[in-house]
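Deviations from the work plan: none for this task. Representative record:
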Amino acid sequence: MTDFDFKKYWQERLEIVNRALNYYLPEDANGPQILVEAMRYTLFAGGKRLRPLLSIIGYELSGGRDLEGELLPVACGIEMIHTFSLIHDDLPAMDNDDFRRGKPTNHRVFGEAIAILAGDALFSHAFYTIVQSRMPPERLVSVLKEITDAIGLDGMLGGQVADVTGENKPPSEEIVEYIHSRKTGKFIRASLKAGGLAAGAPGDVIDLFHRVGDKIGLTFQIVDDILDEIGEKDKLGKSVGKDRESGKQTYVRVYGLQRAKEKARELAESAISEVEDHFGFQKGRPLIDLIKFIVERNY
Amino acid sequence: MTDFDFKKYWQERLEIVNRALNYYLPEDANGPQILVEAMRYTLFAGGKRLRPLLSIIGYELSGGRDLEGELLPVACGIEMIHTFSLIHDDLPAMDNDDFRRGKPTNHRVFGEAIAILAGDALFSHAFYTIVQSRMPPERLVSVLKEITDAIGLDGMLGGQVADVTGENKPPSEEIVEYIHSRKTGKFIRASLKAGGLAAGAPGDVIDLFHRVGDKIGLTFQIVDDILDEIGEKDKLGKSVGKDRESGKQTYVRVYGLQRAKEKARELAESAISEVEDHFGFQKGRPLIDLIKFIVERNY
C-alpha cells in the first residue's frame, strides 16, 4: 500500500460504476426511446461519480464483500438522484444554465418538457434500481431511510429552494450554512453512510461516517464556491462567476476568499485525522486521498 | 353487510388518509416554509384519495390488521406520488393548465421554480414516508418494487412522455393503449397490489389484484376520456374538451364515444365478477362498489 495510486483506484471504480449504470439503464431500456435517451444524455455526460465512489469506499472500509450484488445498485441509484437534481437545477425556471460539464444542458437538447420528465424518471429509476440490491431487506430499508432523509424537504430539495429564494438577499451566514448543509452536504454524507449501512457496519463506524461525511460535504461546497470565484471556465466546463452575478448566497460572499480557503483546509484536515485515528493510515488511504483531492481540486 | 354504505365506507377512509397525510407532512415540517406550503397546497386540494383507498381495500381484503402502522405510510406515499405527477403535468412546459379541482394550479400560485421543486419534494417525501412503515422489511421491499416499476420509465412517467409527444399525431390504437396502461393503469394496479403485498397476501391474491387492477385502471382512464368529451366543467373542476382541443390521444378519439362507453362497462363487469368469484359478494363489496363508482361517475 506504500505506493497506493489514488488516481488509478478512482479510475477503476469509476469504470465499474459506469458499467453498472449502463446495465441498470441500458440504451434499450423499456420505455419511450426519447426519454431513455434524455436520461442517459446527462447520466453519461462525464460525471466524476464522487457520490458513488464515497458509497463504495464506505462499503469497502466496512468489510462489504459483494460490491456488485449489494452495493452497486445503491451506488447507481445515488448517481441517478444526483443527475436528476442537476437536470432540474439547470432548467430555465431555476438557474437557467446552458452548459454543464462542457455540454449543452438537457433542456437545451431535448426541450423543457422532456428535461423535466427525464429528471423525474431518473429520480424514480433510482429507487427502482436501489431496491434491486441483494443486501438483506432490513439493511436496504436503513439505506433508503438515510438517502430519502438526505434528499428531501429537509435535505437536497429544501436546500435548492433556499438557494433559489435566497438569491439577491444580503449574504447571510445562517442562510449559506443552511443551503450548503442541505443542498450538498447531507447527500454527500448519506452516500458514505449508505456504503457502511449496506455492509452492516457497527454504530460507531456509522457515527464516524456521519461526522466525516459532514466535513467532506461542507469542504466540497466551500471549494465549489471558491472555484466559482477564481476557477477557469475551460477546466470547470460550466460558467464561472455565475453565482456571484446572480446574487447567490456563497461561502466566499459571506466569509471572504481567504477565510473560505482556511475553513476548507481545516475541515479537510479534521476529517482526515478522524479517518486515520479509526482505520489507520493504510486502510483509510482511499478516503484520506479522496478528501485531499476534494480540497485541492482546481476543476 | 346487507345495508353496506359505500359512500360512508369511503368517507371514513378518506378522513383516515387525510389525517395521516397531515401527520406525515405537517404544516411545521422541517424544511423551507414556502416549500412545505406549496407541497400541502396541492396535496390537500380536495383529491378523492382513490389510490390510497385501493391500497386500503387491498390490505383489508388480504386480512391486514395494522392499518396505521403498516399500510398508511404506503397509502400516503402513493398519494404524494400521484400529487407530484399532477403538479408536473400541469406545468407550462407540459399541459399548461391553470386550474385543477377548481383551484389555480400550483405554478399559478407559487411560480414555476417552486412548483417543480414542490413536485420533486413530494416525490422524495413519498419514499421517505413509505419506508417509515412498520411492516416486515422484506414486504416493504416488495411494495417498493411494485410501486417503482409502476411509476417509472415503463410506467407513469413513460406514459406521460408518450402523452406529451403523442399530441397532434393521428389517433392510434397502439399509442392510446400504451399511454393509458402506462400513465394511469399501472399505478392504479400497483396501489391495489401494494395493499395485498403489505398484508403478506398469497400469490393467487396478488395475481388476482394484478388482473383486476389492470381492468380498473383502464376503466378509469376510458371514463376520464369520456368525461373530457361530455362532462361539465363545474363538476370536474378542470377544463373540459381540453384533451380534444390539444390533439391528445384519447380512447374516445380512437374508438368513438359509443364503443368507449361499452368498453368501460365490459371491463368493469369483468373485474367485478373476478372479485366476486374469489372473495364472495359480501367480503368483496367495498371493491365491487368502488369499481361501480368508477364506471358510473360523472365527475
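The mean pLDDT of chain B is 94.
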